[in-house]
Write a structure and sequence with these properties.
By secondary structure, the chain is of the alpha/beta class. The protein has helices spanning 17-26, 55-63, 107-117, 221-228, and strands at residues 5-13, 33-36, 50-54, 73-75, 77-82, 89-92, 102-106, 122-124, 128-134, 139-144, 151-159, 178-184, 193-198, 203-209, 212-219. The chain is globular, with a radius of gyration of 21 Å.
C-alpha cells in the first residue's frame, strides 16, 4: 500500500483560538494551510471559561471576520489597587479615546466565531501527532487517526496547543499558585468596570461578563482548597 502524504506550506497543530486565528490570518490564497487537532470538532462548544481580550485582540478578530460583538462584554474602566498600599490607579477608556480597554468573552463563544469564519481552511480533527522531524528544507509530521494521512510535509510547522507535561524540551516552574474561579452577581451592576487587587497571596480580578462578574483569585494551593470547601453561605 502506498503511503498517504499531504504537502502544505504551513501546518498548525492545535485548533484552539490561537491556532485558528493564525490559520485565518494565513488563509489569503497565497498559502496552503492545514489545521490539525487531536479533539473532535466543536469539542469546546460547552466550555464556559471566561477570557479577557485586549482592545488590540478585538481589532485582529474583526480583520479576520471572527468578532462576535454580541457575545462580548466591554471593559470600560479598570480599578487597580494593592492590599496595604496607598492609593489606587483608575484607567478609563474615554481618556484614551477608544470604545473599550478590553472585552470578556466565554471560550465557547470565541471558538464558535472563529469556527464560523474558518470554513475555507483545510482542517483535520481527531488526529494525533506522533512525531515531528525537520531538516533544512521542510518539516514532517507523522499522524495517526481515522482517515488521516500517514505523513504531512510542511515548510513550517506551528505548535499551538500547549506543551505536554512530559516533553523533555519544556521546563516547568511550579509557582505554587492555584486560580479559584467563580461567577458572582454584583448589586448594583458592575457598570463595565473591572477590578484588580494585588494581595500577598496573589492577584484578585473581577471581570465584567454579561450581568455578572467573572472572579479569578490566585492563591496558594492550601488556601484554594480551603476556599473551595466553603459552603454557599
Amino acid at each position: 500500500m502506498s503511503e498517504n502524504v499531504l504537502s502544505v506550506d504551513v501546518a498548525i497543530v492545535g485548533a484552539g483560538p490561537v491556532g485558528m486565528s493564525l490559520a485565518l490570518a494565513l488563509a489569503d490564497g497565497r498559502h496552503r494551510v492545514l489545521l490539525l487537532d487531536n479533539r473532535q470538532r466543536h469539542a469546546g462548544a460547552s466550555d464556559p471559561r471566561a477570557l479577557a481580550l485586549a482592545h488590540g485582540t478585538r481589532q485582529i478578530l474583526e480583520r479576520l471576520g471572527a468578532w462576535n460583538a454580541g457575545a462580548a462584554t466591554s471593559i470600560d474602566s479598570i480599578h487597580i489597587s494593592q492590599r496595604g498600599g496607598f492609593g489606587r490607579t483608575l484607567i478609563d477608556s474615554r481618556e484614551h479615546g477608544i470604545d473599550a480597554l478590553g472585552y470578556v468573552m466565554r471560550y465557547r463563544d470565541l471558538l464558535a466565531a472563529l469556527d464560523a469564519a474558518i470554513e475555507p481552511v483545510q482542517r483535520m480533527y481527531d488526529c494525533r501527532v506522533g512525531r515531528v522531524t525537520a531538516d533544512s528544507d521542510a518539516a514532517e509530521i507523522t499522524l495517526s487517526g481515522d482517515g488521516a494521512p500517514q505523513r504531512v510535509v510542511a515548510s513550517l510547522v506551528v505548535h499551538a496547543e500547549g506543551s505536554a507535561a512530559g516533553d523533555p524540551d519544556v521546563r516547568v516552574c511550579d509557582y505554587r499558585q492555584h486560580a479559584v474561579v467563580a461567577e458572582v452577581r454584583p448589586l448594583p451592576g458592575h457598570g463595565h468596570r473591572a477590578w484588580e487587587r494585588f494581595t500577598p497571596d496573589g492577584p484578585l480580578a473581577l471581570l465584567p461578563l454579561g450581568d455578572d462578574y467573572s472572579l479569578v483569585f490566585t492563591v496558594p494551593p492550601e488556601k484554594a482548597a480551603a476556599l473551595l470547601d466553603l459552603d454557599e453561605s
